[in-house]
Amino acid sequence: MVMESSFYRRFSGYLKDRFGSRVYRVCIDAGFSCPNRDGTLGRNGCCYCTPGGSWRKQDTSSIKQQVRLEKKRVKNRYGAERFLAYFQAYTNTYAPVDVLKRVYDAAVIGDNDIVGLVIGTRPDCIDTEKLELISSYCKRGLFVLIEYGLQSANDRTLELIGRGHNSRAFADAVLRTREHGIGVGVHVIIGLPGEGMDDIRATARFLAELPIDLLKIHNLNIVEGTLAQRWYHDGTVSPLSLDEYAGLVVDFLERTDPEVAVDRLVAESDPSLLIEPKWSLQKQHVIQKINECFRERRSFQGILYDREPAKERT
To answer: Which range of residues forms the domain containing residue 87?
Structure first.
């Protein structure tokens, strides 16, 4: 019988194995923008992104001050002693290299409690010069990871939701990142308009061919002030039920390399702005439902990895 703890590889366990103790993130808002929001790509953002942006904290304090306060908060809540500096809001490589160096240095240099640097960005906002800068932190002995948003491997879906890049750009960014010795995380969304089980499985197979280290799976949340809200009201998109979502997450993870760590299984949105699905507010219940689906199938992460023929990338 498959034990519940072995359904999928948790990122928290991965970090504990690596560092010998629990490691927690401190989230930092460096005030960066996004080419998908400032007019560079001629768009108004991805369909699910609010006018305030993804995870925007609107924090005007210095980077060091943010790190100090976040460390104190996380330490008081969890008793944490080791931390990852996590640049989460907006696109955290969308600036000149000298600006990036100043910002990253402020977060990690001279703080022995910070054992890693995690940078959220877009695959079209990275280049060799930036990768060389980020890889320099690996040489300092830090755990370094770049998280790229993919959302779907279907280029038609990417165009529809307004991503502003295609799957080939994502794959290229992943390969160049790994060539520089940097870990790679990826975000995907289940429940995007027009996508069904075949599309979701195709995205899983697409990622199975790439050297990724971390996976974050999100459901599509309908949030006020987004294009997705308009689509919801005109019937273009309908949120998945919890049972549907849990089954699709298991489908995805069954096709995921068992060595890939899983760090998220449900999207989190501001409850005051969330329209649907309301079940996404009950994170532990969602995870329990996913575990139940694994248990019912007698399945686990990677059970179908490399067992299905690779399909042509869309």
So the answer is: 4-297
